[in-house]
Amino acid sequence: MRADAQANHDRLLAVAGAVITEQGVDASMRDIARRAGVGLATLLRHFPTREALLEALLRTSFDELTARAAEVETTSSPQDAVLLWLRDFVACTKNYRGVVTAMVKAIEDPESALHTSCVTMRAAGTRLLTRAQGAGVARTDIDGADLFALASSLAWLGDQPGLEARAERLFGVVVSAILTDRAV
Question: What is the pTM of this model?
């Protein structure tokens, strides 16, 4: 990539991150381009769809979350690994309002730019859950899709005005419902 094109790409990602943090994932692509000091066509050359832009923004965070799951799988007890992954998942999604809906849609759509990242991240959580179930410290009547849905619900809850204060308490409730050795 030419130096000026790379500079535009990097500036677009930085500005998009700020705009989406402020306005959510439905922020205007035109507004992102304007604030980055480029035309809409330049933005669309780099990121032809909103999902492509989200994927570029989120890929690093999702990859880090997947790597963190592999790390805690080998360094933490099964129940602590699930707990840490859930906390990291919720924290990862807090940066971009509305991203949970995009993630859930992407998992169901193999053509989505976000699909691979989201499926890989969900699989990492599934491995941790399966390990905890094998150790007898997690419910056996849920699977990775259920864990992802519960984590997504927690992330969504923290994203809702007026409900942020309840999010931490309800996080504990959900964890105690998943892990058999945890109480609220």
Answer: 0.80
